[in-house]
Specification:
By secondary structure, the chain is an alpha/beta fold. Helices cover 51% and strands 15% of the residues.
Length: 463
């Protein structure tokens, strides 16, 4: 057994853009599979920050068991008595843990991206690192995020220095910008991962519990109501007390309304489950690779995320969404990235309409039709069975020509400081053009509105 007595905090390391996993502190506590399960409790108790333990068979690597999964299962009824005195191999086989192994030579930026692409219920599990010497160690996911944050801060500071001093060649500056956009994209994925994991844990579990019990409650209620009906048939003239009580509680009304009440509760549970599923469809954390998806489902999930903004009235006006969906088959794409494009474009359209309504109300010079009917129109169509067009149009004030030329430039924004970074459309352009081999265009006329046209192939090209 090999234990590290102390760990260096990731913020205390001197990391660089090219830093690799092997530069992050690793845990190397190892246990043989034939040891009793109680030994794991002792080891985890001795090291409160220990994320997991490496498992060996005759000093050869077999797998890993994490602190979270171990205590999650040992806290269940009978698990302690069942596994504490038996070999660790029993609980390891029962858990059937998925191994996530990365090379120690992998850059921290790439390692963070791969770790965030895991299924949401595995995203906080420790990472197994294979070193050059053939040994294995564990990196805590939070240590990886701290190291990633240090690199992020270094990149941002270096980028600002380069912009201020203008002492770097154009090609190198573009590479640095591209690296920064990747970091920002990873940061958004991390935020989405936390959102989905929190919702799944805090909402989905209790809702499933309520929905599961509602099925039995409806069944029990039906049985009790049938029993009351039989009593009324058998004893049509009940005693005075029963008559009084039946009148007090309005028995006839309760009998007819109680099933409706339970049905409405079930409808509410179903609605919450749909909302949670829409959030998961939007983030697509468990679908990082390309696959066949329904883009209408992605657009609808994005609109659900933005629902609170769409329902909010601005000076008494509410933005209307008009869908003109065509008959489009499932397309091959990177679903999570494509949903990010929908989010950027739709959020920008809402921002533009809100600003337009507020300013025009103040100046009182807005065309009456635009003022009373702010809208976003979403149209999809299939072209020659090979290409999908997605058009998102608003009837706002439009974009001047001199600004249209710079829309997809990194860091270009017309929004006030603190409200926009100028990366949304730049990242969207990279996703559509570089990742999907498609096109992203903006057509706008001042006073008539703006339209973004996304063109992507039904099947991803081989780059």
């Amino acid at each position: 057994m090999l234990a590290m007595p102390s760990m260096t905090h990731a913020n205390e390391l001197n990391l660089r853009l090219e830093s690799t996993l092997q530069e992050i502190p690793m845990w190397e506590i190892q246990v043989e599979l034939d040891c009793p399960g109680g030994d794991l409790i002792t080891l985890f108790g001795r090291e409160p920050l220990l994320p997991g333990i490496i498992l060996n068979r005759k000093e050869c690597f077999v797998g890993m068991i994490s602190r979270q999964k171990f205590f999650e299962h040992m806290s269940r009824p009978y698990s302690f008595g069942l596994f504490s005195r038996r070999p660790i191999e029993n609980i390891y086989n029962f858990l059937q843990s998925d191994l996530f192994i990365l090379s120690g030579e992998l850059p921290i930026i790439e390692a963070t991206q791969k770790a965030l692409q895991r299924s949401f219920h595995l995203v906080y599990e420790p990472i197994i690192v294979a070193t050059q010497s053939g040994k294995y160690g564990l990196v805590d996911f939070h240590q990886l995020l701290l190291a990633y944050s240090q690199i992020y801060a270094f990149t941002l500071a270096h980028l600002q220095l380069v912009e201020e001093q203008s002492q770097i060649a154009k090609a190198g500056f573009q590479d640095l910008q591209h690296n920064y956009t990747r970091l920002v994209q990873n940061e958004k994925m991390a935020a989405l991962g936390q959102l989905v994991a929190g919702i799944a844990h805090e909402i989905n579990n209790p809702i499933n519990f309520i929905a599961g019990n509602l099925v039995h409650a409806i069944d029990y209620t039906q049985n009790l109501l049938e029993l009351i009906s039989l009593y009324q048939q058998k004893y049509p003239t009940p005693g005075k007390k029963i008559k009084t009580k039946s009148s007090e509680i309005e028995l006839d009304y309760v009998t007819s309304d109680f099933p409706n009440l339970l049905a409405s509760m079930k409808l509410g549970c179903d609605r919450i489950e749909q909302i949670v599923q829409s959030l998961r469809n939007f983030s697509r954390l468990d679908e990082a690779e390309k696959k066949m998806v329904d883009i209408h489902e992605g657009i609808d999930s994005t609109l659900l995320i933005l629902r609170s903004r769409l329902q909010e009235k601005i000076n008494g006006k509410r933005i209307t969404i008009i869908k003109e969906y065509g008959n489009i088959p499932a397309i091959e794409c990177y679903a999570g990235l494509l949903n990010q494009v929908f989010m950027n474009i739709l959020a920008n359209a809402i921002d533009a309409l809100e600003e337009f309504i507020i300013k025009s109300q103040e100046l009182n010079t807005l065309n009456s039709e635009l003022l009373t009917n702010p809208e976003i129109r979403i149209r999809t169509e299939l072209i020659d069975n090979e290409q999908v067009n997605i058009c998102i149009r608003d009837n706002g004030v439009g974009i001047p020509e001199n600004i249209q030329k710079h829309l997809f430039d990194p860091f270009f924004t017309t929004k006030p400081v603190g409200k926009g970074t100028g990366l949304g459309l730049s990242i969207s352009y990279q996703i559509i053009v570089e990742k999907h081999g498609g096109q992203l265009q903006c057509l706008s006329t001042v006073g008539k509105g703006t339209e973004f046209i996304i063109k992507i192939p039904v099947e991803l090209p081989i780059f």
